[in-house]
């Protein structure tokens, strides 16, 4: 009687979000588990959720470590990354002592996790770089003067080392793929685009919830991170502009958290918007669905900068999956994702952003048509189903005969 094949073991490393809060990492990991892989994720603990040091989520083993996010500007990141790297090394070695690791998939930032992969490579582990963020551009976008600073050049060096060490690269869009090939010198055959696409079964429209509108005709909604580069302050100034024009027919909910949240709340008070803007923080998937199902217009206010212009914003595709029209600044990858499901404001001007919001508030037929276009685009091109196929094909090429057979998913999960 033949011995059952061992399921390949993928060790996923992520530093900037906990799992399952990190939707991309969770989707990728769940996809691999369903295909017959064994998956372990090492990540930080969340503040109010994902707080257990160890958990099993949809068949994914998750190991979490304590981490305090950086404060005090760019100088705080070396400390944060050093602590994260220490815990990741510690847990990765623990996982390796318990059994073989076939692939280490490192999700940046930071571009330092390749060091963990190199430590496991002598025992046969391949290294996959899952390229979530352009870290050099992130520093340029967040910190004034970073172009000339030591930290910026350090990010360029470690990015290059990460690309050089990788056996394969997963890029989130074609712009990132181009950077992997051009700046990272990676063979194009070793780079696969796996877009962050919504699971349409989790993004179904619900009946609108009138309570969320607070008695108003319309609801504006934002969903996402609230950091210096995310532009939520532009959204607040656009809301202020609408109020200055005498509009009192909308309420606004800004969902999410980040290191700018308290500053944004203070700005809302300064602009006199506390009666029209809510900051519920991180919210449940059910609240997200109810809010987006109720929203007349969704906001994607990320300003044009070296990072945002080339990055795919998850919220854009999630708005589209919910059949909602959106307004965005004129970013290259925003146009690639949204096409004619969005209106695009130029020059990072909150007044022009307000103009586009007002256009949609005043035209119900346009809102409905743009929402239909967005949902159709996600269904046919941008949903997780397409990305899932690309991810599994990437792993099949990487592992060759060692990859699970297409019909072996159930055996792999029990191995």
Describe the overall structure.
Helix 4 runs antiparallel to helix 5, helix 7 crosses helix 12 and helix 10 packs across helix 13. The longest helix has 22 residues, at 77-98. 48% of the residues are buried. This protein has helices spanning 23-34, 77-98, 114-120, 135-142, 150-165, 174-182, 232-244, 261-270, 285-294, 314-321, 332-338, 350-361, 364-382, 384-399, 409-414; strands at residues 9-14, 38-44, 54-57, 60-65, 103-107, 126-131, 168-171, 191-193, 218-223, 250-255, 277-281, 297-300, 326-329, 342-345. With 415 residues, the chain is of the alpha/beta class. The protein is 42% helix and 17% strand. The model is unreliable at 408-415 (pLDDT under 50). It has two domains: 9-197 and 383-409, Rossmann fold, CATH 3.40.50.2000; 200-381, Rossmann fold, CATH 3.40.50.2000.
Task: Give short descriptive properties of this protein.
single chain, 14 strands, Rossmann fold, alpha/beta, disordered C terminus, 415 residues, globular, six-stranded parallel β-sheet, eight-stranded mixed β-sheet
Low-confidence stretches: 408-415
What percent of residues are in strands? 15-25%
Number of strands: 14
- What does the radius of gyration come to? 22 Å
Our count of domains comes out at 2
- Please tally the helical runs, counting DSSP H or I stretches of 4 or more residues: 15
Gross CATH architecture of the largest domain: 3-Layer(aba) Sandwich
> What composes the largest sheet?
8 strands, mixed
CATH superfamily of the largest domain: Glycogen Phosphorylase B
DSSP helix fraction: 40-55%
